[in-house]
Design goal:
- The complex is a heterodimer of chains A (294) and B (223).
- Chain A has helices at residues 19-27, 35-40, 54-61, 80-87, 122-133, 146-154, 156-173, 178-198, 203-210, 216-226, 229-252, 263-272, and strands at 10-12, 30-32, 44-47, 70-73, 95-100, 110-116, 136-140, 255-256, 284-285.
- Chain A is of the alpha/beta class and 294 residues long.
- Chain A folds into two domains: 6-141, NAD(P)-binding Rossmann-like Domain (Rossmann fold, 3-Layer(aba) Sandwich), CATH 3.40.50; 150-248, Orthogonal Bundle (ProC C-terminal domain-like fold), CATH 1.10.3730.10.
- In chain A, the strands form three sheets. Chain A has a five-stranded mixed β-sheet, with helices on both faces. Chain A has a two-stranded parallel sheet with strand order 1-2.
- With 223 residues, chain B is of the alpha/beta class.
- Chain B has two domains: 11-116, 3-Layer(aba) Sandwich (Rossmann fold), CATH 3.40.50.720; 128-221, ProC C-terminal domain-like fold (Orthogonal Bundle).
- In chain B, 55% of the residues lie in helices and 12% in strands.
- Chain B has ten helices and five strands.
- A five-stranded mixed β-sheet of chain B has the order 1-2-3-4-5, sandwiched between helices.
- In chain B, helix 3 links the parallel strand 2 (46-49) and strand 3 (68-73).
- The chains are: A alpha/beta (294), B alpha/beta (223).
- The interface between A and B is medium-sized, with 16 and 13 residues.
- Chain B: It comes from Leptocoma aspasia.
- Chain B: Pathway: Amino-acid biosynthesis; L-proline biosynthesis; L-proline from L-glutamate 5-semialdehyde: step 1/1.
- Chain B: Homodecamer; composed of 5 homodimers.
- Chain B: GO terms for molecular function: pyrroline-5-carboxylate reductase activity.
Chain lengths: 294, 223
């Protein structure tokens, strides 16, 4: 998004078959299969793995984390304190920032929030904010609001896609060709969102402005209300938020199930970090006295 | 009589002694009354009908052609000077008559001139609407009783809550959605309660009620 030159970015993944890998390479981003190399050559580290994998990654790269590094985790439900706790066995004052973003960063209309950890300074937060503001809206929040943000804007695009699919169905039912219906539905939501963001008015007022007495729109809204449209959306945000909190408990666990990681991946990583070991038959803690930093 | 008004059993006497005549009978009685007073109605008279479901067209048909006719739909709280009234004019009623009616009745509450087609809607919204509010007040109080508050106190508080909320709406001129948002602190009691109301599709149910009453008013007018 123009904030950082591509050659200053390094991406790493032990699995090179992923479609994102070739995409990143095309952009001119440095690519490596070694997480350790990435850490050595970077200042800001974005951990973009699934929550159960976070402890694994932290154990792997922990030895190479230095005071200068800013570790940014986007993993849903993974707390700052759990990351700090794991990294503190390697580095006394790890800088950790937790963030929650959403998929429309791809089109620079993301919604991102972040919370800074114990040792992350205001400047570190501002750096992240500057980076993420280039791909949409970004603001700092208290960490305990992040789960709610996940429920609202993290999952939000999925609610919108579902709504758009259904709106398009409505259009098709009433005679529109599918492509046109999708295009118009998306534009309607885009336009409405833009109006709301640019207006001082309450969404209820904006809604009223569209509803002429006895007209088409108010008839349609009555259907939405009858179907409990509003409560469905409230339920959805609540469910996503609650589930995020449940995942937090999973991520807080210090035990990693080997089932969470592909065997082939594991083998590749073990070559780099012989200190790591995972038993195949049962759950094993990676934080035994044997696996300390070299 | 207690208020110092003259009373009589004779409709014609009322018409002779008055300029502004209010018709406040039940719908099925009205035709007979109009028949009765018709001879006494002059061009100076202003006839205002409060009779539900009787259109201006009907009134004008049953009265002399020079009659200034207006039709009004009040609601119950007029008796405590907090009513909501709408009125429409017939073909011979002019700005003067409309102004007169409005200035007289504004002392009883809100009084607005509207196209006649709005009158049935007003019935559904505010005529019957008063009953919806009583129902809501009752339910609020019952909720409080369930949670341990004595009934009489709960009822008074419920009524005061509705009064206060309505007053804020009228005086601030803000959109109700905005006022609602203002009461909802994040994760607080109000938003939890509102979620219950939304789950019960309260909004749709209320819209259904207004629609049903309006449609019934239209139906009855045709009879």
């Amino acid at each position: 998004a123009g904030v950082l030159a591509a050659h200053k970015i390094t991406a790493s993944s032990p699995d090179t078959d992923l479609p994102t890998v070739s995409g990143l390479r095309k952009m001119g981003v440095n690519f490596t299969v070694s997480n350790k190399d990435t850490v050595k050559s970077s200042d800001v580290l974005f951990l973009a793995v699934k929550p159960p994998i976070i402890p694994f990654i932290l154990e792997e790269v922990g030895p190479d984390i230095e005071a200068r590094h800013i570790v940014v985790s986007c993993a849903a439900g993974v707390t700052i304190s759990s990351i700090e706790k794991k990294l503190s066995t390697f580095c006394p004052t790890p800088k950790v920032i937790r963030c929650m973003t959403n998929t429309p960063v791809i089109v620079r209309e993301g919604a991102t929030v972040y919370a800074t950890g114990t040792h992350a300074d205001v400047e570190d937060g501002k750096l992240l904010e500057q980076l993420m503001a280039s791909v949409g809206f970004c603001t700092e929040v208290e960490e305990d609001l992040i789960d709610a943000v996940t429920g609202l804007s993290g999952s939000g695009p999925a609610y919108a896609f579902t709504a758009l699919d259904a709106l398009a169905d409505g259009g098709v039912k009433m005679g529109l060709p599918r492509r046109l219906a999708v295009r118009l539905g998306a534009q309607a939501l885009l336009g409405a969102a833009k109006m709301l963001l640019e207006s001082e008015q309450h969404p209820g007022q904006l809604k009223d402005n569209v509803c002429s007495p006895g007209g088409a729109t108010i008839h349609a809204l009555h259907f939405l209300e009858s179907g409990g449209f509003r409560s469905l959306l409230i339920n959805a945000v609540e469910a996503s938020c609650i589930r995020t909190r449940e995942l937090q408990h999973v991520a807080d666990q210090e035990k990693i199930s080997p089932a969470a990681i592909k065997k082939t991946l594991l083998d590749k990583v073990k070559l780099e970090s012989p200190s790591l070991s995972v038993a195949s038959a049962s759950k094993v803690s990676l934080f035994t006295s044997k696996s300390k930093k070299n | 009589q207690e208020l110092g008004c003259r009373t009589t059993h004779c409709n014609l006497e009322v018409v002779y002694r008055s300029t502004l005549v209010f018709l406040a009978t039940k719908p099925h009685i009205l035709p007979a009354v109009l028949e009765e007073i018709r001879p006494a109605v002059g061009s100076h008279h202003i006839v205002v009908s409060l009779v539900a479901g009787v259109t201006i067209q009907t009134l004008q048909r049953l009265l002399p052609p020079w009659t200034k006719v207006l039709r009004i739909m009040p609601n119950l709280p007029c008796v405590v000077q907090a009513g909501a009234m709408v009125f429409s004019r017939g073909s011979k009623a002019g700005d003067e008559e409309a102004e007169l009616l409005k200035s007289l009745l504004s002392s009883c509450g809100l009084c607005e001139e509207v196209p006649e087609s709005y009158i049935d809607i007003h019935t559904g919204l505010s005529g019957s609407g008063v009953a919806y509010v009583y129902l809501f007040a009752e339910a609020l109080a019952e909720g409080a009783v369930k949670m341990g508050m004595p009934g009489a106190l709960a009822s008074r508080i419920a009524a005061q809550t509705l009064l206060g909320a309505a007053k804020m709406l009228l005086e601030t001129g803000e959109h109700p959605a905005k006022l609602r948002g203002d009461v909802c602190t994040p994760g607080g009691t109000t938003i939890y309660a509102l979620h219950q109301l939304e789950k019960g599709a309260l909004r749709a149910t209320v819209m259904n009620a207004v629609e049903a009453a309006t449609n019934r008013a239209c139906e009855m007018a045709k009879d």
